[in-house]
Amino acid sequence: MKLKRRWNERTRLILTLELAVVLPAAALVILSALHLKQVQREHGFEAAIQREFGQILAISEKQINHRGYELVDDARNDFPGVHEACSDTLDRVLAARPYLAHVFLYDPERGLVFRSQPHRLKKDEQFHAESEELSNMMQKWLDPEYKDMLQSITKLDKRGIPYYAFPNGAPRGEKHLYQSVLMFAKPDGADGHTAIGGIIFDAEYLRDHFFPEMLETVMSRNLSEGQKAVMMVHPKSESYPLAASAGWDGGVPEVERNMDYVFPGLTLAIKTPGTTLEAIGQRFVRTSFMILGGLSLLLAGGLLLTYRNVSKEMALARLKSDFVSNVSHELRTPLSLIRLYAETLEMGRLNSQEKYQEYYCIIRKESERLSALINNILDFSRIEAGRKEYDFRDTDMRELVRNTLESYRYQIEQHGFTFEEKIDPVPPMRVDREAMARSIVNLVNNALKYSQDRKYIGVNLYRENGAVKLEVIDHGIGIPSQEQQKIFEKFYRVGDPLVHNTKGSGLGLSLVRHIVQAHGGEVIVDSAPGQGSKFTITLPVNAAAIASNAATA
Ligand code: ADP
């Protein structure tokens, strides 16, 4: 019945824990793991960063174009009208703007006026060649294409795109260096004639100044704090950078964006420095899994601890309720005996003096048992409340042990026990006499209670290696090894039917341990079921006490 009740309590506890904690926690862990798996499968982490990178590139391109337009607009505003177009007026446009390599103005009647930065023309042969080539190309191209070109420019203008732009490769040795050409319509108010004006960015200026500076600017503006990224710009058909931000470490860009409007033919690229998004994604997933694993372990540990604590509390509550019934039982028996014998005495019907003596003796012993039990309970409650105080005095342990045993000897022998004591001389010690006597009484009492057929009690007191040992030995029922530590816990009683039938509160040994520990010693048990038990109290010899005693002697 009792077993069934305990089993039910246990099941209820497990069910409560499972429903209230394990299920939601497991659901959370499994959902998170599934989510992580999905992120891993769909490269969700990389995709999110790529999206972010894409947005950064779009904003950066806008800002770069905006700056490009500012430069071109500035030149355009300074452009001469169709009738004033000559080398001087165009050279003036160039002189104030080192970012321009060439400017031109084309009108079908007057032809092409093409001018290049004069100071570079003089000393740079390649630039000279570039100038010649471009001016020829423009001439050849604009003669037949002027009308179509003008139409295209007007169409773009209507769409809000102020320039017709195309890339050009400026020859530099074997290679070509990027520059962009931007053209616009230049109407002449006077006769409604419209010329086509154009500017060509200086290739070196773009490579060495404009893009490096713009890349730094857009990065400082567009990257959020802590966000790590590097950018570069490269010609669409080539992978090496035309210009790169500080920290560009080569490798494949994560996201690219083709530029339009001001710098067609160029591609803006971004990546994380020193690693790839894939590696970061893998690391993210790995760390997340590890954190999830760690959390699950913590959760499992917490659950285990909670389960153990709750089980312990339940066991303690059970022990307490057993204790109450045990103590009531223990109180009731001597009380009813005392009452019975006292009533008999009161009636005065006993016929011999010996009978009277016997009854007085029983009443005394039973009240002694009651006092011992109540003392144990009082001591226990003081210890629990942290109010137990010890009165240490120099004591002759031999005398203390002998006196304590003496009052028990009669009882021991009356129960048919063989009693042996071997009490060696030991140095005087500082102990609380009453507490120490109570410990001995508890141990001897247990030896009496838990012996069946082989009735033997032995008590030894001796000195060994700077310590005094007190042994209480019986040949009784013994204690299984897995119970030997637990018996020192409060309320604990071995779940053996033999023990169950014996009265007890489960407090005796916990008191013994507390008292012995308060004296700086320890109590251990050596026992085997059916073989008997040996409880040993080891107390350290108080060096100061010995010394002072020797001096007085
Ligand atoms: P109790 O009041 O139950 O005797 P104790 O704290 O003195 O409480 O002992 C705890 C338990 O240890 C006992 O219930 C018993 O199961 C076991 N025990 C103690 N002493 C002995 C002994 N000498 N032989 C066998 N079992 C013992």
* CATH first level of the largest domain: Alpha Beta
- Going by CATH, the architecture of the largest domain would be 2-Layer Sandwich
Q: SS-based structural class?
A: alpha+beta
**CATH fold annotation of the largest domain:** Heat Shock Protein 90
Number of strands: 16
Model description:
- By secondary structure, the protein is α+β, with helices and mostly antiparallel strands.
- The protein has three domains: 2-42 and 278-323; 64-202, 2-Layer Sandwich (Beta-Lactamase); 388-552, Histidine kinase-like ATPase, C-terminal domain (Heat Shock Protein 90), CATH 3.30.565.10.
- It contains 13 helices and 16 strands.
- The chain has helices at residues 2-41, 44-77, 87-95, 118-123, 125-158, 203-222, 277-347, 353-384, 397-414, 433-449, 497-500, 508-518, 543-552, and strands at 100-107, 111-116, 164-172, 175-187, 194-201, 230-235, 243-244, 255-258, 266-271, 393-395, 418-423, 429-431, 456-464, 467-474, 522-528, 532-540.
- Strands 2-1-5-4-3 form a five-stranded antiparallel sheet, sandwiched between helices. A five-stranded mixed sheet has the order 11-13-14-16-15, with helices on one face. Strands 7-6-9-8 form a four-stranded antiparallel sheet, covered by helices on one side.
- Strand 4 (175-187) and strand 5 (194-201) form a beta hairpin.
- Helix 9 (397-414) runs parallel beside helix 10 (433-449).
- The longest helix has 71 residues, at 277-347.
- The protein is rod-shaped and about 160 Å long.
- Mean pLDDT is 87; it is low at 543-553.
